[in-house]
Amino acid sequence: MTRIIDAAIAELDAAGVERLTMRKLAERLEVTSTALYWHVATKEDLLDLALDHVVGEVPVPAPDGRPRAGLRALLMDWRAAMLAHPWSPGRSRGSCSMADATWRRLDDPAAIAKVRAHILDSAERYPTLSTSGFVDAGWSDAERFAFGLDRVPDRLLTTS
């Protein structure tokens, strides 16, 4: 199974989700498509296994009494793993990662400016987003990620 998943990840990295087919994967593995179906029922199952493998490559920090630092390290490493496999953010089940991936892939400056203006002009509808700095043109993806990441543990680890 590991051989199939590794080959699927290589194919996904090279061609993306849309171009991955069981036939192409079988050719890469030098087997028949039918042979793959003995191990993986559907392409969706294969994509889930590939994403699990990418996320599973990230080591979980050992508990050391600093949960905030451990959580931050884990999430930074997950982000790095997903950036190394451009197809993976769109496969994750969280809408935040899909929205972030969509925003990063948007390469039309006019469209980005229009979205930014809408958010800033509608601050009452988007109070958090309009004041977060995420729509500021000067922030890199890494800076926006780290800024948001530093706020998640604040909410998760706050005790009442």
Could you name the key traits of this structure?
160 residues, mainly alpha, Arc Repressor Mutant, subunit A, 2 domains, 9 helices, flat
Give a written overview of the molecule.
It is a single chain. Helix content is 66%, strand content 0%. It is mostly helical and 160 residues long. Helix 1 packs across helix 4 (43-56) and helix 5 packs antiparallel against helix 9 (141-156). The chain is built from nine helices and no strands. It folds into two domains: 2-56, Arc Repressor Mutant, subunit A (Orthogonal Bundle), CATH 1.10.10.60; 67-156, no CATH class. The longest helix has 18 residues, at 67-84.
In short:
This protein is mostly helical. The chain has helices at 2-15, 22-29, 33-37, 43-56, 67-84, 95-105, 109-121, 127-132, 141-156.
